[in-house]
């Protein structure tokens, strides 16, 4: 585990790509923190649920452009 | 501007595991009631059939028995718009391979009309005792499974971009125009004998002539659209998420739909178990399966079931709007080219159309991919 932050930009992608990309990143990364960028609350919820099912702790914040930044920590 | 997820208990409820379950239960109760109030058998709500009826009402096909502007469709989309505006989730966007989405909508409809129903109706038919639906659902699962293989392999229709508000309002405004056309029912066209006909066509017999009072249908649609927007209810995502990520979140909603529709049908005396003589259904099981293989495949590549695309259209997603327009256009072609089934079986060119549709979807699946940033 490292202190690196892995960023996965899923903005604009349709279901289920954001959740799929998040899962792929969360299950393969060595980074201690992963941030996933999405543009809809549906994707935010899907990504959060996927991450938590994979054993990470996630929280989200709204970005100025109306999208969301979902941050996962181990 | 940080916002913790789930600021209100209502928001939390609908995004919790109970959201899709509650939505499925409400659809499961209201759809059989719509049949009780006048809709065709096991067709309380069918997004494909109802868009097909709208296509007929607009004269895009001349199958006289399936022409009516269905207020349920209008209501679902506008209900989602209302929820989107109330909860700040109306976010217009566009630009993710629109023409490909049109084609997917087109062939999803072609496939659904070979089976005679969208996924919603497949589950509702089963809950009404129509065992032919099992074959449709089997096909749906296979079709979604094929789509999942492509998703695993990196299939993507690319990114949508934020768009001006006006873009997101196009589909809602089209729905309002349809509502006006339903209520005004213009008949200023004339046939060869001088009788008033069109531009809006209304069936005088068959399924298109069977409907609940428009205001009831509209209100039911609004309620379902509102709930489905909040809970992200999706009948294709239900199976896809289990296959792709072992996530039963949406599947629970579909199970609730089937259970509650089954109970409501029993109470209303609408449950009729069997294969033969089911309403607006045929017993050619090969084509019940294969029609839904095509539909499930196309829905999966498009990102959701037809109901979900109505909801996303209400949220301002113009790419979903294009998908809906593709479905309505596909319905016009399906009846004009005799690819749609009837209670007597598949249309003359249904099998050929399913073959072409599968080839097109395979081509889309193989060619559409994008390199992700992660």
Shape summary of chain B:
globular
- CA radius of gyration of chain A: 11 Å
Q: Helical segment tally of chain B?
A: 15
- Helix proportion range of chain B: 55-70%
Regions with little confidence, pLDDT below 50 for 5+ residues of chain B: 1-6
Low-confidence region ranges of chain A: none
State Rg of chain B. Answer: 19 Å
The helix/strand class of chain B is mainly alpha
The number of E-state strands of chain A comes to 4
Examine the secondary-structure arrangement and name the CATH architecture of chain A: 2-Layer Sandwich
- Order of strands side by side in the largest beta sheet of chain B? 1-2
According to CATH, the fold-level topology of chain A is: Translation Initiation Factor IF3
Measured between the Cα atoms of the first and last residue of chain A, the distance is 9 Å
CA(first)-CA(last) distance of chain B: 26 Å
Q: Oligomeric form of this entry?
A: heterodimer
Identify the CATH homologous superfamily of chain A. Answer: TusA-like domain
- Give the number of domains of chain B: 1
pLDDT averaged over residues of chain B: 95
Mean pLDDT of chain A: 92
User: How many structural domains are formed by the residues of chain A?
Assistant: 1
Helix/strand class of chain A = alpha+beta
How would you describe this structure to a colleague?
- The complex is a heterodimer of chains A (74) and B (374).
- With 74 residues, chain A is an alpha+beta fold.
- The model of chain A has no long low-confidence stretch (mean pLDDT 92).
- In chain A, a hairpin with a 5-residue loop joins strand 3 and strand 4.
- Chain A is globular.
- The longest helix of chain A has 13 residues.
- A four-stranded mixed β-sheet of chain A has the order 1-2-4-3, covered by helices on one side.
- In chain A, helix 1 packs parallel to helix 2.
- Chain A is built from two helices and four strands.
- Chain B is an all-alpha fold and 374 residues long.
- The longest helix of chain B is centred in the middle third of the chain and has 21 residues.
- Chain B has a two-stranded antiparallel sheet with strand order 1-2.
- Chain B contains 15 helices and two strands.
- Chain B has one domain.
- The two termini of chain B are 26 Å apart.
- At the A-B interface, strand 1, helix 1, helix 2 and strand 3 of A face strand 2 and helix 10 of B.
């Amino acid at each position: 585990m490292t202190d690196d932050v892995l960023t996965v930009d899923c903005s604009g992608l349709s279901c289920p790509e954001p959740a799929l990309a998040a899962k792929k990143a969360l299950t393969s990364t060595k980074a201690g923190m992963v941030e996933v960028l999405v543009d809809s609350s549906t994707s935010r919820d899907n990504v959060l649920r996927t991450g938590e099912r994979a054993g990470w702790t996630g929280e989200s914040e709204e970005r100025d452009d109306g999208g969301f930044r979902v941050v996962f920590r181990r | 501007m940080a916002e913790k997820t789930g600021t209100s208990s209502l928001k939390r409820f609908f995004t919790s595991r109970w959201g899709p379950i509650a939505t499925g239960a409400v659809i499961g109760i209201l759809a059989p009631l719509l049949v009780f109030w006048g809709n065709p058998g096991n067709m309380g709500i069918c997004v494909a059939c109802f868009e097909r009826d709208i296509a007929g009402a607009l004269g895009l096909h001349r199958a006289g028995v399936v022409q009516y502007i269905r207020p349920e469709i209008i209501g679902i989309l506008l209900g989602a718009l209302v929820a989107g505006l109330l909860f700040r989730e109306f976010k217009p966007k566009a630009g993710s391979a629109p023409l490909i989405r049109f084609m997917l909508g087109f062939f999803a409809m072609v496939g659904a009309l070979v089976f005679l129903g969208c996924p919603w109706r497949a589950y509702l038919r089963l809950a009404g005792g129509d065992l032919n639906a099992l074959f449709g659902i089997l096909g749906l699962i296979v079709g979604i499974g094929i789509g999942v293989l492509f998703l695993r392999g990196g299939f993507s229709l690319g990114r949508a971009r934020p768009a001006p508000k006006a873009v997101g309002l196009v589909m809602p405004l089209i729905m309002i125009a349809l509502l006006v056309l339903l209520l005004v029912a213009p008949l200023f066209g004339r046939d060869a004998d001088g009788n008033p006909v069109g531009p809006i066509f209304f069936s005088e017999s068959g399924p298109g002539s069977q409907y609940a009072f428009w205001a009831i249908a509209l209100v039911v649609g609004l309620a379902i659209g509102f709930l489905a927007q909040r809970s992200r209810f999706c009948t294709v995502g239900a199976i896809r998420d289990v296959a792709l990520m072992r996530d039963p979140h949406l599947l629970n909603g579909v199970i609730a739909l089937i259970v509650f529709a089954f109970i409501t049908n029993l109470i209303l005396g609408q449950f009729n178990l069997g294969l033969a003589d089911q309403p607006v259904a045929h017993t050619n099981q090969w084509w019940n399966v294969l029609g839904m293989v095509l539909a499930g495949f196309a829905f999966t590549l498009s990102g959701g079931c037809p109901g979900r695309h109505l909801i996303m259209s209400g949220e301002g997603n113009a790419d979903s709007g294009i998908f809906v327009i593709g479905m309505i256009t596909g319905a016009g072609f399906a009846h004009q080219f005799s690819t749609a089934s009837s209670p007597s079986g598949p249309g003359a060119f249904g099998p050929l159309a399913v073959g072409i549709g599968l080839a097109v979807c395979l081509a889309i699946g193989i060619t559409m991919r994008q390199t992700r940033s992660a």
